[in-house]
Amino acid sequence: MNRRRVAALGAALAAAATGAVVVPAIAHSAVGGCTASYQVVSTWNGGFQGQVTVANPGTTTITAWTAAWTFAGGQAISQAWNANLTQSGTSVTATNVTWNGSVPPGASTSFGFLGTGTGPAPAITCSTPGGPSPSPSATSSSPSPSASVSPSASVSPSASRSVSASPSQSTPTTCSGAVFCDGFESQTGGTISGAWSVSFVDCQGAGTATVDTAVVHGGAKSARIDGKAGYCNHVMVKPTASLAGVGSVWYARFYVRHSTALPPDHVAFAALKDTADGGRDLRMGGQNGALQWNRQSDDATLPAQSPVGVSLSKPLPTGRWNCVEFMIDARGLLTTWLDGAAITGLQVDGTPTPDVDQQWLNRTWRPQVSDLRLGWESYGNGDDTLWFDDVAVGAARIGC
After folding, report:
1. Coil, helix or strand for 241?
2. How far, CA to CA in Å, does 376 sit from each of 58, 122, 190, 239?
3. 0.70 surpassed by pTM
4. CA 59, CA 39: separation in Å to the nearest integer?
5. Is 240:195 a contact under the CB 8 Å cutoff?
6. Higher pLDDT, 104 or 43
7. Does the pLDDT of residue 82 top 80, yes or no?
8. Which of 72, 220, 289, 323 falls between 20 and 30 A from 316, CA-CA?
9. Cα 345 from Cα 105, distance rounded (Å)
């Protein structure tokens, strides 16, 4: 990756961050139906990113839902994902897409959008077929940056469940439907062995991989990576079992905890070999302090490393366990979740979007991934200590 952009981008991102506003979610109840909450996730000059969470507080599964609100400040929606959005004047209606209409009792699903304009946060209603539509409560007095309008649906093939991992203690974790599932419990002693091996792809530095019993997410053991700074300082662990049977659509879930914020320079904490791309790696990590994907073959990044692009990603919180999930489809689709919520800037939906996946889609990408490695790859500055636990890979979403 070209590192000469980092200093300039850092200054631009700092300037952009000074104007960011986060508006608290506004929840509204629906008797016998669903509830919805509206939140402004991030803002920039003339635009914003919004998110709506639809929840099922009842005792039976919801099979379809509709959320609706009215903008008061002339906002317009320009892009949306995980819902079918339409806007007529100031009125916006969102309905579920195929994969997230079903919401079990106590569960939730989220959709997001980008917009232009400014104005107060709106009241929002939620309704289900045959159920009552609640009256919206008063809007928040917090200022809400504007939105841009355009009926657009995401092609993400999976519902985004709202599930959070415990920040500091052991948490029961499901592996339902996984082809591979391991929490390092079979490891003996402090050396990685058995179901896992240590991998140094391309080159080896001073980093180490060991078994830890002091910091765990589930069970009594985890994998600890002591990652060191410096170009090509690589150390990762990978399953010794073949993952070839997963198929053309991969879902992965792992818990990661780390101690140092993602640096300005490029780093990676997960990698997958893409046999359809000359065996080069698809890497997940960070740059400019936020999560990113990087394609080794042409150095494309997701999102684009612009101030707006980086603002559509998220940092990886330190000092707690984070549930990271991703989906990679051989048709060239990619979705990423952090603690159950989809990250706007880390999605490839097949339609080029400026500051998100436009650079990524400059060429045809039809991935065929064949392995999963977790650890640390430094391409500049940045030490970090990371722990990985409760890793699962399958052909359907496993969840947190």
Report:
1. coil
2. 43, 43, 18, 16
3. no
4. 26
5. yes
6. 104
7. no
8. 220
9. 29
Provide the sign of the torsion angle of the four alpha carbons 34, 39, 41, 44, taken in this order. positive
Are 213 and 220 in contact, with CB atoms under 8 Å apart? yes
pLDDT at 130: 64
Which amino acid, residue 389? D
List Cβ neighbours of 105 (8 Å cut-off, separation of 6 or more): 56, 57, 58, 59, 60, 61
Radius of gyration of the chain (CA): 21
Euclidean distance between the first and final Cα of the chain, in Å? 32
Task: Say which residue the tokens 């690589």 belong to.
Answer: 234
Q: Which residues pair with 191 in a beta bridge?
A: 210
Which amino acid is it at 201?
V
Closest Cα partner for 291 from 220, 359, 345? 345
Element (H, E) at 308: helix 307-311
CATH numbers and ranges of domains, the chain: 19-146 (2.60.40.290), 178-394 (2.60.120.200)
| pLDDT tens by residue, 134-187 | 434 333 333 333 333 233 333 333 333 222 223 333 344 568 778 899 999 999
What value does the mean pLDDT of the chain take? Answer: 80
Virtual torsion, Cα 316, 319, 321, 323, nearest 10 deg: -10
